[in-house]
């Protein structure tokens, strides 16, 4: 009677999908070998130590339709599922987000501005890239890499050797122009199986040591044109990939307008505010799309901020004592640099919001707080 | 690491508590013998066919702190739990709501107006009650009884025999004055372990054949005094019972002011709107209280309506196509008069809200819709 969604991955994103989906009488199963993964309590878990084909088949048998909560998964898994049952978003979306070169080519084909780049196969290519694009250069692996991992900021030509030693084993690499940006923004959109599309307001994202520290939504001081441009960009990506579900586009705001950075074919950390801050959250909208249901309203009635809880838990009581603060804990053990929860706080104005963010910074034990209280 | 709450009962109320509590890294277990109960997917389930002492002990061993999602439970169960671990709300709250005579005496002791009544031990007492209070009389069992079950509306003295035949086996009974009321209201409040108390706005409740059909919150055309009076009444009940968790007080609005009808020591159907309509839902606030956390804000920013889905499911797609409608399905099979889900719809004004309620009535298959579309 209840449609079951199989989620590749059992982390906090899968957990929040399930918490949103149970309301609609959807049920969930997860493919994650960690017994204590954040989604473990919310549905049957599959996946043995080696992620054997047998355990993947048992997972496929357990659900009606499939999705994923992270993009760094073997395409062979998705191919095996897709041969038997529907998977949303489809393999096209996955192929683009799994490979920065594919992504760059897509941006280019759709006339979406993005940083100039050079493909790197050997150390000499790095020298050529410096000559062609100039310094600094951001050198990245083409596959994998998240939260600033698998990246090297090449400031001087003397660092080429060091960079190559660090990343050379992962060719091809990509060397990108270092974009001078005012701030980082992201737009999250959701597209249904019927092509219906909804856009969340742009988020302003702040990082600390490569990890998202906090987001403010709608991004302050934004002219309407920026939101519409971002919607146009992500809309063309969604259509070109025939994407179903949530897609995130990270952008740089520069003097010359928006520059696309990267995509994620899934719910995104910069969209966690939407659980309380939007009529219908990114998680509910994603599972609605995967289940073939109509999409919900993405509007935010007032400003909100999302603060990540990194490495160490704050006192729940101290957080909940702050007006309009909502606490989300993922059931993960504490570990440096690990995302173990988040807080969303709302307010009637940005000024009031900033006051509440400062209060939260005072009760957050992790170094993110330093970034917040400035 | 995660505090586990044991819930007596695994129905939709337990399910919605769990969906709210997982966010705070609380986890849940349930005592319900139905394998397919609505909470089954959200935590381990205990309770064999006979609800044996062994199965209750296994349930007690499974959690750190306990609560219940319905009040018609054997007090022996609660006593057995309370001898070993904390239970919120406590046995005092349960004793009052399980017995209409205790409840009447509490209202009286706290100077809360309620209907005049007579205790009934034999058929002659009914005759005496008619003489003392007049007709019509509402004759009710003292224990059990919900959704209009275990009640008889005595309109004429000739019906005494019929009434006695129906209810006489369940003495003592209570015969209550039939209160001429304008409408039924309910107030929901939550009290923390530290005595901190928060009140939700009054709901206006509509019934159809004894079952709650829909609620509108805040109750329209309400003067501030009515809300404050209701808060004073429920506040005195909470304090007198040293209640921890959510408590609901059903009230009649009459020409002479508010008249208390009954209490429920738990989250309540007339509070389901709060999931989307209040900053912090009755479910989250209840589990916060049980877990010893600070309470969340109970304010509603705009009007909302909650419509029960009774007996038969509507098309999810048709419901979700209506602006600001949120669908909640409990994973129960269809059966006449059974609450199997609800819809919450919000709007910026009561006029807009009424328009959306009418649209929802058009897509609801159950007879509740008749009541709505008038």
TrEMBL record, chains A, B:
InterPro entries: ATP-grasp, ATP-grasp_carboxylate-amine, ATP_grasp_subdomain_1, PreATP-grasp_dom_sf, PurK, PurK_C, PurT/PurK_preATP-grasp, Rudment_hybrid_motif
Annotated ATP-grasp domain residues: 104-291
Catalytic activity line of the entry: 5-amino-1-(5-phospho-beta-D-ribosyl)imidazole + hydrogencarbonate + ATP = 5-carboxyamino-1-(5-phospho-D-ribosyl)imidazole + ADP + phosphate + 2 H(+)
GO cellular component: cytosol
Xref: Gene3D superfamilies: 3.40.50.20, ATP-grasp fold, A domain, ATP-grasp fold, B domain
Positions with a binding annotation for ATP: 100, 140, 145-151, 176-179, 184, 207, 261-262
Keywords on record: ATP-binding, Ligase, Nucleotide-binding, Purine biosynthesis
Pathway: Purine metabolism; IMP biosynthesis via de novo pathway; 5-amino-1-(5-phospho-D-ribosyl)imidazole-4-carboxylate from 5-amino-1-(5-phospho-D-ribosyl)imidazole (N5-CAIR route): step 1/2
Enzyme class: ligase
Classification via PANTHER family: PHOSPHORIBOSYLAMINOIMIDAZOLE CARBOXYLASE, PURINE BIOSYNTHESIS PROTEIN 6/7, PUR6/7
Family named by the database record: Belongs to the PurK/PurT family.
Name of the featured protein: N5-carboxyaminoimidazole ribonucleotide synthase
Organism (species): Paraperlucidibaca baekdonensis
Lineage: Bacteria, Pseudomonadati, Pseudomonadota, Gammaproteobacteria, Moraxellales
